[in-house]
Amino acid sequence: MPLRWQIGAVRLLCCLPLARLARLEALYAAVLAVIPSWWPGRIACMEVSLATVLATALTGRQARWVLGARFLPDAAHAWAEVPEGAVGRDIGDAVDRPWMPVLSVP
To answer: 44-64 burial by CB neighbour count: b if 16+ within 10 A, else e?
Structure first.
């Protein structure tokens, strides 16, 4: 699916109440648990975070889908977040090179 369609689908979820961090963490773990090893395509942070946001919507709640970047070395990353915190965001080396949100939907 083109990125603009993915963004449009997530924007439709703006009327739902925000999820709690515990629910988001549980859904993120569930998405990671069902990733098939036989899939020939890409399943990385963007796909996992989008699946987490959509799974959250299926439970009647919403989470923000965030696409971000950082410098030195240049890298891009995607994660899901609620006001209480985020899931799927690398925090091990983010102290000196934090991720900067570029797009946050919705």
So the answer is: ebbbbbbbbbbbbbeeebbbb
Output the CA–CA distances (angstroms, integers) from residue 13 to 25, 56, 78, in the order listed.
19, 10, 18
pLDDT in tens, 52-98: 999 999 999 999 999 999 887 788 889 999 999 999 887 666 667 78
* Amino acid at the residue 50: L
Distance CA 85, CA 79 (A): 11
| pLDDT given for residue 22 in this prediction | 96
Q: Please compute, for residue 22, the number of CA atoms within 13 A of its CA located in the half-sphere on the CB side.
A: 0
Q: What letter represents residue 91's amino acid?
A: I
Question: What are the backbone dihedrals phi and psi of residue 25, each rounded to the nearest 5 degrees, phi first?
Answer: -65, -40
The structure tokens listed for 90 are: 């690398």
